[in-house]
Amino acid sequence: MDKFNRRDFLRKASVAAAAGGASLLWACGGAEEESGGAPAVQTRKKYEWKMVTTWPPGFPVLGEGAELFAKWVDEMSAGRLKIRVYGGGELVPALEAFDAVRQGVVQMGHAASYYWAGKTPASQFFASVPFGMNAQQMNAWILCAGGLELWRELYADFNLVPFPCGNTGVQMGGWFKRRIDAISDLQGLKMRIPGLGGKVIEKAGGSAVLSAGGEIFTNLERGVIDATEWIGPYHDYLMGFPKVADYYYYPGWHEPGTILELFVNKSAYEQLPADLQAIIFAASQRSNVWMLSEFEAKNAVYLQKIKAEYKTEILEFPAGVLRAFREYSAEVIEEVTAGDAMSKKVYKSFAKFQKEIGEWADITERAYYSRLSV
Ligand code: CA
Fold it and tell me: Which of 8, 26, 126, 158 is the most buried (most CB within 10 A)?
């Protein structure tokens, strides 16, 4: 855009608008190659695909969003691409979704990319990073500032094509059975918290415990764990956490805007005609917006339900605790990127963009919200 001028911009804008709403979304680059290499001639051939997910069947927002994605693809393709969605464990165990799609057992998966940190550590940066970017900023990096190209480069080695397909928004910091007044209160604390956030808790003297979703409530109730994070008021209410822990801390420093991903078997994807490839991208972005919007709308309602129905104390982490978490997070990221060239490359792009957009956000989002409370 260095030869930018107003007339040129208006001409491009009118061309994009004439081509339909979806074109506007892709006007910011990174997606033009989307249909490259695919058969140019549209066929009436019908495809029946399967999608595995890491969510329980029908799981609110996440599983629902995967189902909606399949419905929208069906509608847009006039039934030429039918996708059957499976919950975790229905076809393959939840955490085998990545390999099932990579190997072509099924054609698609829906998950969060930090689940695959053990296969390729760089995947974590496409889900969420402690003290990283929020949903809006992650979308900006992925869709319009080079993130998707890096993600595709990473996943191409696994015969996969990734798409952002949902976002939780800023999560909550978690449910605690006792107050956290200082970083020393983390000593000996057993918390269910996965990924990079878990490593931060361990640096603070706690232990990060992994429990399957169905076991968290019981573990918290019985004192097997002292704390857990999950997502936000909507899911946390449904999980029953306010019944067994009194302190609900914010903000979710460890997951400030977690992206949910769609990943497609690359060989299968390349066999599709160009219009079906474009439909997959378009439907993934409709799901991307829908899941974030649904989380935000429901979290607002369920925050009020928690406040009305329980004696939950909703508390902000003390500044000193957040400062310590932030220092430990920097150490954790340094350790991950030092040991893996692709993580280093991806995080370089991530960190550069976060710095730039942070300066922009300071005089827009941050300034706006701080003025609301004046
Ligand atoms: Ca979480």
Answer: 126
**Considering the chain, what percentage of its residues have pLDDT values greater than 90?**
83
The residue range of the domain holding 55 is 46-166+257-296
Using the mean position of ligand 1's atoms as its centre, give its distance from the Cα of residue 173 in Å: 8
Distance 161 CA to ligand 1 centre (A): 24
Look at residue 214 in the predicted model and tell me its pLDDT: 78
* Number of domains present in the structure of the chain: 1
The dihedral region occupied by 204, where left means phi > 0, alpha psi between -120 and 50, and beta the remainder, is alpha
CATH number at residue 58: 3.40.190.170
Whether the full predicted model's pTM is greater than 0.85, yes or no, is: yes
Q: How far is the CA of 170 from the centre of ligand 1 (A)?
A: 9
155 in any annotated domain: yes
pLDDT given at position 44: 85
Answer positive or negative: Cα dihedral of 239, 214, 261, 209: positive
Residue 308 lies in a domain: no
